[in-house]
Batch of 4 targets.
Target 1
Amino acid sequence: MTLSKDLIAATAEPLVLSILSRKESYGYALIKDVFALSANKVQWTEGMLYPVLHRLEEQGFIKSVWKESDTGRRRKYYQIEYKGRTRLTEQLDQWDLAHKMILGGRDGAHA
Amino acid sequence: MHKDSFDLEFSLSQFLNKIADKKLVSRQRLEEIESHLRDEIDDLQSHHELPEAFNIACTRFGSSEDILSQYETIFKNRRLAQLKNFLSYYFDGRFVMRILTGVILGLGFIFGGMAIEGGNAHSVMRLTPFLITVGGALAGLIIAYPTQHVFRSFAIAMTGKPASRAEYIDASRVFKSFGDFAVLSGLVGVIVGIMHVTRNLVNPEQIGPGVYVGLVCIFYTVMLKLFVCNPMHDSFVSKAYPSRESREVAPVHAKS
């Protein structure tokens, strides 16, 4: 099982924010993190990730810094901003609600 | 050896050059793509030969056309967003800009209309009516409000600097009164003109100029109220009591 195209797109932003809320990271590592988080089921493509990153940066949810890695290679690290944390909380609430609604619908529970 | 015939630096720069050819991708983003590819190639090399690793990394990244089309949409959206930001800044952020635009447009239409009717701008450029109207209105303001108050309101209007809600409310009142006083002092101008005429009824040559000064007074009054007082009053009111939408839009140009 993997995620549908729509869900991959919908989860991209909250996933990036949630990973960055724990530690700063760069594009390639983010893709690997997502792969691991999904138990090797979801493989993001670069063509999808970078537009998301750049959009989030332009909206001020994250910022980027060029840093030199241990191997001496320059990498663009992304860090979450305060505004991004607020955004993440909002999105977590939304996903939580969506999740509850689906389960509630099946089990007949009232929210 | 097989490995020697493959030049990573050369292949990589070829791949990147294809993307760089179009001017859509900034140098920084290109550098980001490069560091990404190098990371991926390093990882892949644990299972693959270098040329193979390079090919897999490039395929995974997507063809250069794919990347370009991705960046093209971002680029277009960014241009659009920049334009939108600029427009909203221009029209919401700076009173003085808005006033200038409005006044120039308004004067352009009015004097344009006068020119078509065969008049000329010189016919309303009179100092006396201007002094009576604007001077009278300013004097009224000085009597009605603390001087500091008046200065502050005009300062907010000229610089467009953000102010507190109370200040916006005060400024809106000042400009409301300014307009009202301008109407009254314009009326004084008309009365003075007609008084002048009635005293000189025996002298028909004086009738024309006397009435004329009165009319020009009314002209200045209406101009002042139309282009300065009412718009300033309205925009201060909307600043003091923002509508729901404008409150949501506001943070756009509140960038740190």
Target 2
Amino acid sequence: MSPELKGRGRMIELRHLGKTYKTANREIVALEDINLSVQDGEIFGIIGLSGAGKSTLVRCVNLLEKPSSGHVFIDGEDITEFDRKSLLSLRRSIGMIFQDFNLLEQRSVLRNVTFPLEVSGVKRAAARERAMELLKLVGLSDRAESFPSQLSGGQKQRVAIARALATNPKYLLCDEATSALDPNTTRSILELLKKINQTLGVTIIVITHEMKVIYQICDRVAVLDQSRIAEEGSVSEVFTNPRSKIARELILPERIGASWQKNSSTEQQEEV
Amino acid sequence: MPDLGLDVLLKGKNFARLLGGLGIALRISVISILISVVLGTVLGVLRQRENLILKAFMRLYLEVIRIMPQLVLLFLVYFGTTRSFGWDLSGETASVIVFSLWGTAEMSDLVRGALSSIPGHQYESAEALGLRKTQVYLYVVLPQAVRRLIPLSINLITRMIKTTSLVLMIGVVEILKVAQQIIEANRMNSPNAAFGVYLTVFVLYFLVCWPISVLAGKLEKRWG
């Protein structure tokens, strides 16, 4: 690995990343020679059809999946060489949210948000204060004592976002975070992510199969096709001039609808 | 009102004897349940591992226990093994062995089921929060697994208590056997006693198992 790659102020760098799963009778290639740089403070989108390897890719960023080859640099450090302890503290600096929210059903909203703090040894009162701050940020101050089963999907995702932000991460990974939500709720969650990116300066990686998600909040996008990156560039670039076949397929049928959505979303009141 | 022969219970120490019989039935149940819960949990957790030898062994064990009627198991242990291996087992010990074997098998199945019902993304998101493996189990997996496990294991516990009535067949003088003895002893002067005495046995079993069922129902409602 050439040293000049480390000092460019790029915060997340994937180099020649590969992932292969071995099953009893064959090998399945999930990722092949992925090279990506995610800049400080941007919202980076990764789009692809199901099975393209998006979820595996985002899991390699916090090593929920161990890459079979290649390197993951975060702030210039190769995290694939981290020991268990450094990896755990690294994970606290990378928040993650999921399609199915993954809240703890037996804990109240407040205690879901304080959970990662409690586990890392933060005092109860301090954790509570931080959680209330975050719940205010995501617009759920009044639901602190509710339980996840009493919330709508959008509200659950807001709690998950608050929880992911509890440990003050520099990065937020969103794995199909809006795929289980209706269009209006999706829009409001995306607005929230944008707000978090702008006010807290959190770098966000968004995994999605929906072009309108990319269009609404991302600065740059990578199009993933059959385990490889087919195309990468700024969202406007890729949208106006998609070079790969897969990008054209994903964008063109959406373009009219997406631009309409973008216009209407600015007028729409945010739903909480 | 027909003569139920309930007066038999008031004679001598009859009612106290019946309660004593219930005590024996409960002693067998409680010891077996404790052993089953502990061993069953350990085996259930172990069954999560991908160990072929353990898997084969557990499979054989479970199938044998499931297929055999408990009564046959009782006979096998009490009459069979004592003869063949020449050891000396009291009826009560034999009962505890059989009920523990049975309870452990069922319990391990429940634990395995509860653990594998926790979806993979729960482990994943816990790890994404920076939890250690032990913390993932302690704070995320176990609380959820226990919630699912409690109603099921309470059901198993009541079944075990009820099934202890079979141990009279290997000569253990538990509540049902005491009831029979009381009825036999009063066959001449109180020929209707069977109804009253068995009714009392029914009520006593009910009083033991019903609170447990209610508890199970409550927990299920609260956590369902």
Target 3
Amino acid sequence: MSVEHTVGMAQRPAETKPTKPAIDWRGRLLDRAPFLVACLMLALIIGIYGSLQSGVFSLDELNLDTAAAMTLMLAATGQTIVLLRGGIDLSIGGMISLGTVIAATRFTDDPSTTALWALIILALGFLIGALNGLLISLLKLQPFLVTLATWSILNGVAMIILPTDGGSIPSWWVGFASAQFIGLASPVWMLLALLMFWGWFRATRAGIAIQATGSNEKSAFLSGVSITRVNLVTYGLSGLFAAGAALFLVTQTGAGSPTIGKDYILPSVAAAVIGGVSLFGGRGHLAGTLIGAFVLTLIGNLVFVLHVSSYWQPVASGVILLLSVLASSVAEKAARNRVQ
Amino acid sequence: MDLVTVNGLSKRYGGIVALSEATFGARAGEVHALLGENGAGKSTFIQILSGAVQHDGGSILVDGRDYRPANPDAAQARGIAAVFQELSLIPDLSVEQNIWFRHEPRTLLRTVNRKEMRRKTLALLEKYNFPALRPDQELRRLTLAERQIVEIAKGLAKDTRILILDEATSALPAREAEWLLKLTRQLAAEGRLVIFISHRMAEVRAIADRLTIFRNGSTVAAHEANAVSDNEIVTQMIGRHLDRLYPERVATATDSIALSVKGVSSGSRLSGVDFALREGEVLGVGGLQGHGQRELFQALFGATRASGTIELWGKPVSIGNPRQALTGKDGIALVPEDRRGQGLLLTKSVRENLTLSVIKRFTENGLLSRQKEAALVKEMVDFLRIKAGTPEQLAGTLSGGNQQKVIFGKMLLTQARVLLLYDPTRGVDVGTKGEIFQLMRDLASKGYAILFHSSDMPELVHVADRVLVMRNGRIAATLEGDHISEEEILRAAMLETKAA
């Protein structure tokens, strides 16, 4: 080792102090490609929608569309956390159904009783989710299987509580979704709250640990992360957001439904994937998921104003999903080639 | 008093004894080397120390207090951190996020204080004179060597009194390895205990104060480093005399050209490489790191795009992708650089790893013949002396040397007779190294043609029939016979070629 080497690591200038390097714009662009594609799609859909329908570019429309998308957004927020951890949560379908039937059978005109039951639903969501996490950790089972099972169980319980759609939701609770503050409807405020929550959550140690576990579980473990605790919190939050979705959903339906939850399982995953969240964990942001949820919701509007059969909606959603996956895989390959 | 005292430490995995009755003692302020073949118990020992696994029997005292960490977190709380060979880094986090992971400085809102984190990162990198790193770069964009350096920074970021370096130099180019050795001495001088694992005797000699030797899952001896000779150490490591590490070099090359390479270029790293590899020949590829060796191997295997002409056994080929390169007796097979990442499926069994790329060989009328597969797997396991409980043992649970043997087996089963070996002994113990060299000679005598790169220069000098020295993406010199020496390789690698 006495020979003085002339070349350092990866042909870098032989300096020891970190220098201020140029920002790698192309790399950053490639990293965000899936998200940018989602934004582009949303702009395109809004553009077409706006050219076919008047009054699309108004606050009213924003309020209405956000209300229409909010249940999916809440469900997809939980799903995003789970996907970031590298898992998947199918049980949110059961939790949403269960939440709506409990609300429809227990909510009364008395605000304090209703508030209490709303809190119970939220707590139940967190606990059932945490139980998912615990089962996944302790039994070392696939999240897919565990949450498929709990989905079925929750669905059954929802059926037992309320076999058919019905029950009643107090009108003051239903009115919440259209209540306005400073010109914006409450769902828009919720949207902003979700983004703020995410900005905070992703910067906490817990948020980073969840992302890290999704990125490489073994490395996270070796770094001292308790995988069990990560699973508890991840799936707990997913259950909590599913319960939140149920509480919002009843403002739209005004009733409980033991079967409605299944309509949100796959769309919640699709919204996240369209928004650039990786199914393999470790990568993605809520902003993308929310854009994805808007895309999926507005496709419905678009199909409506185009006066074509509503069966085109799932077809269009599927095509968009494929395009997103394609965009992220192309970007991923381009990014990998750059590393080489 | 010793900082760490270990008595009768034991660990079993199912029926396999990984560690039995190990004893160990080390003081603060010393560099203590652990030596032993792969599978000798070193890895298990440091996994227990770092809290990754828990021991079944025996005791560990740290500072005279009982020490039994339930997880890596508990170990860190007692000031013990490991820089794993199996890296503990998160691909999707940035360099600085990785360094401070779980110990990030926080704001009042309990979020990460980025400014403070950046300041602490730069201070840490400066304090220990780290090679250049960009704190904001995502880890997955980094090379293996850079990741290893981040891992070291991570180990130092915490308030660590005992730092375990598990083959930390094996992924580093010479210059950075030298830096790490200096750093190790500096850490010991600051009063820390550094437990240092390396298969490079020269490094151990350069920095260790004391050393403990492992063999067959137990400790066999502990020495003051300056009171024991290399020969004694090697004898205690393998329990017998290792007559020679390097096999006798018998010229087995024929005149038949196996692999002919003309004007192969790829990007800026490879510009016009010409050479011919003959049947029965071991052709070494040397030079300083980063002068196109990696790119050459990748281009030949078809993992990166390249221009130029490549002929295999006299026939021109366009090697488009690894699968194409793999086909049959006329093909090429590669032992890749990063065996954990590229070569092995760690969560699959030895059998599956061996047969994955040659599944066609066991199919009869479209059906998989388990018997045929089992017979070939057994043959390979015996031939290579792979130490696995059963062929169903997961590859990830094997020692480094045995993992490398599985990759060799996988490569041999493809029946390709042109073999590309990229640093095949990296992180492999002395005994297995010897076996690998012998295997290379045996294969050469059977008519295989072997292109061989090693980051360890003596290996090239003692094993290769000829050595190509690369500089700036070109072949700067071809050394033969008596001209093959470390001095000549370095001269060709570093100095301008004299006008011939």
Target 4
Amino acid sequence: MVRRWLEKEGRAYAFLAPYALLFLVFIVVPVGAAVLLSFTYFDTIQPPRFIGLSNYIMLITQDELFMKYVLPNTIEFAVIVGPGGYVLAFLLAWMLAQLPRIPRAILALILYSPSMTSAVTMAAVWQTLFSGDQSGYLNSFLLNLNVIQQPIQWLQSPQYLMPIMIIVTLWSSMGVGFLAMLAGMLEINPELYEAGSLDGIRSRWQEILYITIPSMKPQMLFGAVMAIVGAFQAGAIGVTLSGSNPTPQYAGQLIVNHIEDYGFLRYEMGYAAAVSVVLLLMVLFFSRIANRLFHEE
Amino acid sequence: MRRILRRSYSFRNSMINPAGFHPSQIKFYVVLLPLILFMLLPIVFIISSAFKPLSELFAYPPRFFVVNPTLKNFTDLFGLMSTSGVPVSRYLFNSVLITAASVAASILVSTAAAYALSKKRFKLKKTLFAINTVALMFVPIAVTIPRFLVIVRLHLMDSFLVHILPALAMPVGVFLMKQFTDGVPDEVIEAAQIDGASDLDIYWRIVLPMIKPAIATIAILTFQATWNNADTSALYINNETLKTFAFYLTTLTSTASGANVVAGQGLAAAATLIMFVPNLLMFIFLQSQVMSTMSHSGIK
């Protein structure tokens, strides 16, 4: 019996085993541990103590920072960077697909190249470009044009930090999702477009809606998942830019920074775990919406 | 005749992947070029700053392009010891070694998993692939803390492996690889089985050569993830000689570490360029392979 199983399926599992083991150790166990820890009080010194839903109740009812800054900031950031970046990636891919091969390859490379950088390694660049004194590049440029009279502390001002975070993240968001949509678009059978125009499609918008998107739904979904994950994963950008956690007046405080704040600065691991679970649920929720929109029956 | 036909419809349908230039493309260039320039600015800035002498880095008014390019920032960088007495070349050596090992291991682990998920028959096949697809939504940064606890338990703190192993659990890599492997015809594999080829032979001699574009893509994704990684060094490594170049770069720019901000600027500019260029070269060489993988990327 066992031998027959080994003959039949054992080898498949042997090929799968290294990945499965790493997946288990570095993804499944941490997620499981986050869920379990979220029901406990844990300060890393004493063993975790079960406290039921207290962490979640406190998150909703007593964590003023979370409700007042972190949650609205996270939603604002994620909605603009996620769906916003996604629509931008789609439109750029759509334009690129209608250009000849060589200019397309060059422009795609330029659009993709920012996504090869990471927020931490770009910190020096942003800190110089957005430097707060008059020798900062943006300040100097705007002072020259007389748009502003005084240099602005871009990265330390609550009202500018969030827009800069969003621009910087959008700048680096044309990644694999963008490439997938571009590739998907190039694979669409040109006869579909011919047929569409004979069937009375009148504008480019109709064409996008009735031909382009339906013909590349799988890539649309892949791109959407990548956009959502990217939007939440980019959460550390505010701290990187402003150089402090918490960010100035919590203006750029996102859920990821809140987790780090509680986990590594206050050592309230149980509470931090509860916030992590909320974050994972948010990602799952948005991905389900994308799934509804683009899943093929 | 064609002209008449075209006139009779008010709408001319899109030209996907046109062979050459056509006046109708001008409007796309008009929209794309300013945006491209904006996207390119920080990249040009990285290159320009790396070659600026200190006087130009702190020039007032600041100038975007370098006037008197110099290699001084690079020679300074490699002549330097970090504040803790580790030569900078050591960080770079660590990064190169870690990245090379991660890319090689990631290719083996993901192709083996993809081969099983795509070409083998077993009961849990569909379920396991579905789990991997759900894991595409996994946000590693969310579970930094439990991951930290796991790594402490496994005694991986302060080891080279902690740079490599977590990077291998990359759902998006296995996902892309499996979708691409689906394109390898079953007949080819069956024919090899009839000829008496073992599983290992089929995987190594038949499947791997046929999925080279996907391998190139995994290589790039793993490369980017590990080469740019500063978090692992910050969280799991106390021993300065095991940290990466990306981490060293963050110490140059963080104001908290009390680094010399003036001298740090030139070093940071040179280091940022060193971080960026290998990413760019990898992608330029492998671009066409990546695009052909991406056309198989859909979630069905």
